[in-house]
Design goal:
about 220 residues; mainly alpha; 2 strands; about 0% strand; globular; disordered N terminus; disordered C terminus
Amino acid sequence: MFLPKFFFSRWANTPEKHNLVQLAFSLIFFGLCYMIPNKLHFIDYHLLPTLFNENVSIPIVDWTLILYFSSFVQPLVATYLIRNSERTTRFWFLVRIMMSVQGIIFVLYPTYLTYRPDPLSRPTLWQPVWKFLHMADTPLNCCPSMHVSVGLLCTIAVFKFRNLSVGLPTALWSLGIIVSTLTTKQHYIVDIIGAAVLVLLILPFLLIEPKLKKLKKE
């Protein structure tokens, strides 16, 4: 099966350069697939449905901002936990594939949130954090949630390549991030469902181990 070489790191099998290169490529993909579609759009935005009237039924919880921002650290922690150059290459490759699919969705079917809290209405301690969040992250291109999809992929990868004792804390972390997307009013439930569906489509490429190369006859 042919895959574009651009998705791969030149030094994927060099341990001392591996993580840095994978991270650099993924940051580029994040910019191309999320940040740019947020700033440049050519199609009218679509209003996301609230399945359970989330704007009212789910309260704002200020301290969950910490969980929300921790999503940006989680892939690095997952990379450390996996501890295998070949497997982390597969993990980062799928992260970039997933970002690419989401980027296409953001361009072809852009969405927006109707409600986000006014930072000045929040407790004084958290106001600067809310202001930074709203400055850095617009209420656009919400479905599927990239926070949720990356978190789920991190969890599955750690479960796959490590064990229950390591995977369970990662799963609880991801669950906290998922909840935080709702309690910070950054996403609706439909965004979470969309992210879960996307991860399910990509999941076989993570779970199926590649065939070992046959040993050459001497």
